[in-house]
Amino acid sequence: xxxxxxxxxxxxxxxxxxxxxxxxxxxxDLHIVRDGAICxxxxxxxxxxxxxxxxxxxxxxxxxxIDASGKAVLPGFVDSHTHFIFGGYRAEEFAWRLQGMRxxxxxxxxxxxxxxxxxxxxxxxxxxxxxxxxxxxxxLAFGVTTVEGKSGYGLDRDTELRQxxxxxxxxxxxxxDIVATFLGAHAVPEEYRDRSDAYLEFIMADVLPLxxxxxxxEFCDIFCEDNVFSVDQSRRLLNHxxxxxxxxxxxxxxxxxxxxxxxxxxxGAVSADHLLHASDEGIRGMADAGVVAALLPLTAFGLKEPYxxxxxxxxxxxxxxxxxxxxxxxxxxxxxxxxxxxxTLYMGFSPEEALTAITLNGAAAIDRAGRVGxxxxxxxxxxxxxxxxxxxxxxxxxxxxxxxxxxxxGRLVFDQTQGGLIDAV
Length: 425
Ligand code: NIG
Ligand code: FE
Known about the structure:
Blueprint: E1 5-15, E2 31-41, E3 44-50, H1 51-56, E4 64-67, E5 72-75, E6 77-79, H2 91-98, H3 103-108, H4 113-122, H5 125-141, E7 144-150, H6 157-173, E8 177-185, H7 196-213, E9 219-224, H8 231-243, E10 247-252, H9 260-267, E11 271-274, H10 280-289, E12 292-295, H11 297-303, H12 310-315, E13 320-322, H13 336-346, H14 351-358, H15 360-365, E14 383-386, H16 393-396, E15 403-408, E16 411-415, E17 420-421
Parallel strand pairs: 1-4, 1-5, 6-7, 7-8, 8-9, 9-10, 10-11, 11-12, 12-13
Antiparallel strand pairs: 1-2, 2-3, 5-14, 14-15, 15-16, 16-17
Helix pairs in contact: 5-6, 6-7, 7-8, 9-10
């Protein structure tokens, strides 16, 4: 297969449009074509429109042709916040939380992130790549064509680099595109207990330079949180990363209102993530500065915390993205349909806003809106075909995968009707 592919006769071809984030009210505007078609040449979209119009301009002999009668055609999903490279699992912590233990209390007792750090330090590169590949396969089956992944379960030089290296290998071999983020400041490791400043110094002096030199991460992130890293510490690390040409993102105001959102605005971060306790001022600031607000409702759901104020953020003019936060602790889920159900049912998103948030604005949250996130001429041919005739079925069919086919750069890589993943090489 050569990346030349046409999809025709879609009941509904639906996409947000643009090459940058869509803020506020504009999130609701979808471009919808009935009897729609899309033409992809050498992996890049060359035409989108009515089937008759698109077909009039091409020689179908040169293309793989897929008939999407009765189905919806959408841009591939962009999951802009995950921690998908890790060793071990934490099913016992889920049970403890059901009995009333709090996430941060488990962490304070040496469980939580520290438990995954222990398991990840023991995992070699081969096993990180193998489990990472399985998770990417699962994401692809849900229609995810671009994913962000973080380090942060090493908290030492070699394991942090190994996590990033695993992503670099998977980026080369797996159809899902990966954007890597360095999250060495995810927690303070046991060796540095009560010495978080010294740990940050270590990261800045001994790890970040190697990450930058080997081009292993495009973004730098930090868990800016009470009892983890303060706003001042976050400012220090992120400013340092910025001088190395690394883009910025933050875990901000997740558990308590600390001011991470305002810091994201001050530093011109590409996105600020979680935001369960973002202040009114922080929200206005994100709207003014064009910081993408990346909301992760599966985490709030799993931790039984109140959802972020997504409706207010959209009404205030923010560009809001939705992502899964897939990780072994606070949120062991990569379910896009459950995420979309929560956003619409509990956070006040319209199905249209939710679609924009998981496509174009997801892409913007990782600085990829110029390349993916919508079906438009010049963008990468990353397309999904649903089993149903409309995007509205995604939140409506609560928690159930409606993705039938996934096309990555003009190649069919997943087809439910052919048993799932297809080796497209
Ligand atoms: O995004 N908040 C910090 N980091 C992750 C959770 C990581 C974990 O529990 O392993 C999050 O929720
Ligand atoms: Fe996270």
